[in-house]
Design a protein that fits this description.
Elements: E1 10-17, H1 23-36, E2 40-48, H2 60-73, E3 77-80, H3 86-96, E4 100-101, H4 103-114, H5 118-132, H6 141-147, H7 165-194, E5 199-205, H8 211-219, E6 236-242, E7 246-252, H9 262-267, H10 273-276, E8 280-286, H11 292-305, E9 313-318, E10 328-331, E11 337-341, H12 350-382
The structure holds guanosine-5'-triphosphate (GTP) and magnesium ion.
Length: about 375
């Protein structure tokens, strides 16, 4: 399809209300996602429906409205806040005469722009290929161009629309093999790193919750922080010394989001290994968000998906400087620390978190010592 003359990266957004809770917030999230991808949201078309239209998702009247907005704003792409079937996407592109992105395509595009490490790039490429194998992906071309092309999908669009499935299959296998090698190397590194360390802690949480800001405050490292979604893609691990507890290993990881594309979770499993092997998760929450609870639930759902739901968790209510909350610590009925409230930005409450980490480290140390003692008793008994 020839590119229509229009304003560069101008996007028309479409968000339909199917009666789901948090619809308004999900539109705000869509706007942030679109901005994070480098597109300019110029108009938002809304509507109410019982269920998606099988051919066009939005129904023909609404699709006309979208087409009018595309013409009016000279948009070069339309972004749906939903999952579209390959057929719906194709039909819409034909009707609207411009590329159409769905939510998964949008998130994949952002990930492609952000991936820095070799492993991260392979993981994104794998997810993109698995997504692409079912559909046309013209809408990505704007992202590819920004990224400067490159990679298997570089410049994908008009010429490569008909990608040979066999080729995709081969490439997918190659990528998976390479990722297995990375995983082995990572396992060895982790074992070496955690030897002698007291506690390994992984920061997890919804995207933009403030994980990297907190990571930097705790470790004095220079992790990239930004008011955009998915600022961090690669896991960064640092050692930090904690008074009274010794060395901890702290990891900053990719943020989660509601309905994170399944393929993406699967291909990021390697990066998330640090999380799966952690002794403790610090689940960072933007306490100032009106959808804080659903974000917590979305993060827990992804944790379950990667098999990290049984790891002890402390909720970190961050950004309390934007709320009436004050720094503090809460325990559950068993006396275990379950929540710390702080502001990673102002530093208020950080000392409380450090104390909490020291307490967990001390508890683990004494549990480890007891286990060793038990083992040595057993050895004595056997010999
Ligand atoms: N007001 C306020 N802003 C904060 C606080 N902590 C982080 N931020 C801001 O929130 C935004 C996101 O912070 P990051 O640390 O990049 O968030 P993240 O969780 O690492 O995000 P991703 O890597 O995108 O998943 C940045 O603009 C931070 O400056 C806080 O305690 N208070
Ligand atoms: Mg981050």
């Amino acid at each position: 399809m020839a590119e229509r003359p229009g304003r560069k990266n101008a996007a028309v957004l479409v968000g339909l209300d199917f009666g789901d809770e948090g619809h308004g917030e999900s539109l705000e999230e869509l706007r942030l996602l679109v901005e994070s991808s480098g597109l300019k949201p110029l108009a938002l078309i809304q509507g109410k429906r019982q269920r998606p239209d099988s051919a066009l998702f939005a129904g023909s009247g609404k699709t006309e409205e979208v087409a009018a907005a595309v013409r009016e704003h000279g948009a070069t792409v339309v972004v749906f806040n939903h999952e579209l079937s390959p057929a719906q996407q194709r039909n819409l592109e034909k009707k609207l005469e411009c590329p159409v992105l769905d939510r998964t395509g949008l998130i994949l595009g952002i990930f492609a722009q952000r991936a820095r490490s070799h492993e991260g790039k392979l993981q994104v490429e794998l997810a993109q290929l698995e997504y692409a194998s079912t559909r046309l992906v013209r809408g990505w071309t704007h992202l590819e161009r920004q990224r400067g092309g490159g990679g298997f999908l570089g410049g994908m669009g008009e010429t490569q629309i008909e990608i040979d499935r066999r080729l995709i299959g081969k490439r997918v296998k190659l990528l998976k093999d390479k990722l297995v090698q990375f995983k082995r190397r990572r396992d060895v590194q982790r074992r070496a790193r955690t030897r002698g360390e007291v506690l390994s802690v992984s920061l997890v949480g919804y995207t933009n919750a403030g994980k990297s800001t907190l990571f930097n405050m705790l470790t004095h490292a220079g992790s990239y922080t930004a008011d955009q979604l998915f600022a961090t893609l690669d896991t960064t691990t640092r050692r930090m010394y904690l008074e009274g507890a010794g060395n901890l290993v702290l990891s900053d990881t990719v943020g989660f989001i509601r309905d994170l594309p399944h393929g993406l979770v699967a291909s990021f499993r390697a990066t998330l290994e640090e999380t799966v092997h952690a002794d403790l998760l610090l689940h960072v929450v933007d306490a100032s968000s009106s959808v804080r609870d659903s974000q917590i639930a979305a993060v827990n759902a992804v944790l379950a998906e990667i098999g990290a739901d049984a790891i002890p968790q402390i909720l970190v209510w961050n950004k309390i400087d934007l709320t009436p909350l004050i720094p503090g610590l809460e325990r559950n009925e068993y006396g275990k620390i379950c929540r710390v409230s702080l502001s990673a930005k102002t530093g208020a409450g950080l000392d409380i978190l450090r104390t909490a980490l020291a307490e967990v480290a001390a508890a683990k140390k004494s549990a480890d010592t007891n286990r060793e003692l038990e083992h040595s008793h057993k050895d004595t008994y056997v010999t």
